[in-house]
């Protein structure tokens, strides 16, 4: 358990950061009045997401590997971290969907039909619902985490000076 305690810590921190981001989106009106901008502005979440992954990998390098971490060690750590974030994603999405912003799905369903993105409410409801978001966020969290790790470790790894 000690081997993965840093990954568990950062997965929990990542989930908390995600919840805070959703509160910020809601407070800015992106789940209501300004929902038309949500599709674009929610992508800014990539900035803190990447930052948290880098901080987690640097933490692992400094506090577990004593400052000497190979690309492979970092990649394994990032994969484990991504898996934990993915495992927490359905719970995080549930808190977002039912506690932080329960009005998001009705608002986005209504608006997507109004602008013709979907022809019927039923089509929109099939896409905008907790189950679909929980599945997609789980898959996306894992894939995005692994890709971010693969790139970040190019810069974080300990370079051989031989």
Structure in words:
With 162 residues, the protein is mostly helical. It has 7 helices and no strands. The chain has helices at residues 5-27, 35-41, 46-63, 71-100, 104-114, 121-127, 130-156. The longest helix is centred in the middle third of the chain and has 30 residues, at 71-100. The two termini are 34 Å apart. The relative contact order is 0.16. The mean pLDDT is 96.
Low-confidence stretches: none
**Coarse morphology:** elongated
Give the termini distance in whole angstroms.
34 Å
List the domain count as a whole number: 1
Quaternary structure classification: single chain
Structural class call reads mainly alpha
| Series of secondary-structure elements, N-terminal to C-terminal | HHHHHHH
User: What's the number of helices?
Assistant: 7
Look at the structure and give the mean pLDDT. Answer: 96
Tell me how many strands there are.
0
Q: Name the beta content range.
A: under 5%
Described by strand count, sense and barrel closure, the largest sheet is: none
